[in-house]
Write a structure and sequence with these properties.
Order of helices and strands: EHEEHEHEEEHEHEHEEHEHEE
Strand content: 25-35%
Low-confidence stretches: none
Distance between the termini: 52 Å
Strand order of the largest sheet: 10-9-8-11-12-14-13
Number of strands: 14
Number of domains: 2
Mean pLDDT: 88
CATH superfamily of the largest domain: Vaccinia Virus protein VP39
CATH class of the largest domain: Alpha Beta
CATH topology of the largest domain: Rossmann fold
Oligomer: single chain
Shape: globular
C-alpha cells in the first residue's frame, strides 16, 4: 500500500480526483494549501505501480509514500458525508443509509465512477440554479454530465426530457444506463433545448458558447459554471459575443455560475 500526493490548483482538483479513481485508487483525501491550492492524497494497493503513477502525475509534483496496513477505503469513505444543497436536494454517498430530510430529493453519489460528488462549489451553484430555472416538462441538456448529478436533479425537479452528453467513457456508460445520451453537443438539434447546463472548464464554455446559442430555443436559458471569479469576464464576453445576455450571476467562495438568456 502506498500514497500518491499531488499538489494542484482548485480548478484542476475534481478532474484529477476522477482520474485517480479511474486509475484504481482505493481512496482519496484532500486538504487545502496556501494560495488556493489543494493537496490530494490517493491510496493504491499495488506497490509495483508507484513509479508508473509518479511519472504519470509528475506535472503535479507527485510524491510517493509507503503506508502501513490499514483500511484506507473506510477512511476515505468516512470523509464523504451527506449534505443538503440548496433548498431541495440531499446528496448522500451510496454506502450511507442516512434518512432523507423531509421535502428534499435524495441523490446518491459515487465518487469512484465519474466527476461529480456534489461537494464542489460549482456543482452546488448549478444545483441551486436548477431549482430556480427548471420548468415542468422542459427539455434539459447537461453538457459534460460526469456522474450525472445535474441531469438527475433536473429530472427530479420535473423536466420532461433530460439529455446528457460527455466524452468520458465512464460518464458515457452511466448516461446510457439512466438517461437519453447524445454523444456531444453538436449532435443536438437546433433550437430544441429549453435549458442547458454546463459545469465544465472556462475554456470549454468559451468554445461552446456558439453551440449553446444554437441549440437553445428562443428565450431558452443556459446555466454555466466551472470557473472562478478571475475567469468570469472572459466567459461572459464569449457568451455575449455568441448572442447571450447574462441574467444572473451567482457566487460561492471563489466560484461563479452564470444564468444566461438566448
Amino acid at each position: 500500500m502506498f500514497s500518491l500526493y499531488l499538489e494542484c490548483e482548485q480548478a484542476e482538483k475534481d478532474l484529477l480526483i476522477a482520474e485517480l479513481w479511474d486509475r484504481g485508487s482505493h481512496g482519496i483525501t484532500e486538504s487545502e494549501l496556501p494560495q488556493g491550492r489543494s493537496m490530494l492524497r490517493a491510496f493504491f494497493a499495488d506497490d509495483d505501480r508507484a513509479a508508473e503513477l509518479a511519472l504519470a502525475f509528475a506535472k503535479w509534483s507527485a510524491r510517493v509514500e509507503e503506508e502501513p496496513p490499514r483500511d484506507w477505503v473506510a477512511l476515505a469513505e468516512s470523509r464523504l458525508v451527506p449534505q443538503c444543497v440548496g433548498s431541495r436536494f440531499f446528496l448522500v454517498p451510496r454506502w450511507r443509509e442516512d434518512p432523507t430530510p423531509p421535502g428534499r430529493f435524495r441523490i446518491e453519489v459515487n465518487p469512484g465512477m465519474a466527476f461529480g460528488t456534489g461537494a464542489h462549489e460549482s456543482t452546488q451553484l448549478c444545483l441551486e440554479a436548477l431549482e430556480s430555472e427548471v420548468r415542468p416538462g422542459a427539455t434539459v441538456l447537461d453538457i459534460g454530465t460526469g456522474s450525472g448529478i445535474l441531469a438527475e436533479a433536473a429530472a427530479l425537479l420535473g423536466a420532461g426530457r433530460v439529455i446528457v452528453c460527455d466524452i468520458d467513457p465512464i460518464a458515457v456508460e452511466l448516461a446510457r444506463q439512466k438517461l437519453a445520451f447524445v454523444g456531444t453537443a453538436d449532435a443536438v438539434r437546433n433550437a430544441s433545448i429549453d435549458l442547458a447546463v454546463a459545469n465544465v472548464s472556462p475554456e470549454a464554455i468559451i468554445n461552446l458558447a456558439p453551440e449553446l446559442m444554437r441549440l437553445l430555443r428562443p428565450q431558452g436559458l443556459a446555466i454555466v459554471s466551472g470557473f472562478e471569479q478571475l475567469e468570469t469576464e472572459a466567459v461572459q464576453i464569449a457568451l455575449q459575443a455568441a448572442g447571450a445576455s447574462v441574467r444572473t450571476t451567482c457566487r460561492k467562495g471563489s466560484w461563479v455560475a452564470l444564468v444566461v438568456l438566448a
